[in-house]
């Protein structure tokens, strides 16, 4: 919760119950990076439909889906520059490939869309449902998707 509050300055942090619901929906896909018994970073990843995103500050339950949603990845300011972000992304994508996940979606905020596009994520068409969900995010929110099936066929 402390890392979330330190990293997201343009939006109200989600509640503990909401954050826990993301983890409880799919604990095997969520990650925490610790060093000397101190949490440095986390990633909340769970199954979700391609082209859709849950509204901010809303509890979720497990959904059957062949895609994942990277709900949140945050790195403590004191751990930035250590390569933890790249390690988290690599781990998530390796696990997704092993499990034949079709792709990973996310909503980039606070200008992070450039970073995510450098990681291979691309803007995705929006639906009425996604547009409605995005109203709970800051104005600069951008839904991006990394198609892992297309990546594999290009190799």
TrEMBL record:
Keyword list, A-Z: Acyltransferase, Transferase
Superkingdom of origin: Bacteria
InterPro entries membership: Acyl_CoA_acyltransferase (IPR016181), Bact_Acetyltransf (IPR050832), GNAT_dom (IPR000182)
Domain N-acetyltransferase as annotated: residue spans: 1-149
Gene3D superfamilies assigned: 3.40.630.30
PANTHER family referenced in this protein's UniProt entry, alphabetically: AMINOALKYLPHOSPHONATE N-ACETYLTRANSFERASE-RELATED, AMINOALKYLPHOSPHONATE N-ACETYLTRANSFERASE-RELATED-RELATED
Name of the protein in question: N-acetyltransferase
